[in-house]
Specification:
Layout lengths: L4 H19 L4 H21 L5 H27 L5 H29 L2
Length: 116
């Protein structure tokens, strides 16, 4: 694993989302939504590492956090409509939750350090 666990977790999550959505047939509208939000988490985290300022860094992480919440919504919908089974839902929800908690912590820490 690299030094940045958030990048690694978000990449792993994106790969899982791509692989799962690739196997789902007949739900392209729904899978496209999950693909967009699930992949956007990692893309925004990656982009944050090249932010022009602390404010830009925080903004990119906040976008990633919003995408994380959206992904959780789509995952719950997939589980409630039996597109994915409860075991897979639990795994993905847990992965998304880890990313969400780290994002919240990173945003809060950066905001606190920004006020110094």
């Amino acid at each position: 694993m690299s030094k940045n666990i958030l990048i690694d977790l978000s990449m792993d999550f994106s790969v899982k989302i791509v692989n799962i959505c690739d196997k789902i047939t007949g739900q392209s509208v729904l899978t496209n939504q999950l693909l967009r939000s699930g992949k956007s988490i990692g893309a925004n985290i990656h982009e944050a590492n090249y932010a022009q300022s602390k404010a830009d860094f925080i903004h990119k992480l906040q976008i990633a956090l919003k995408e994380c919440y959206e992904s959780e919504y789509w995952l719950e919908l997939f589980a409630k409509t039996n597109i994915i089974n409860s075991e897979l839902y639990s795994e993905l929800k847990n992965d998304c939750g880890k990313i969400r908690r780290i994002l919240i912590s990173s945003i809060n820490t950066t905001k606190e350090n920004n006020s110094l």
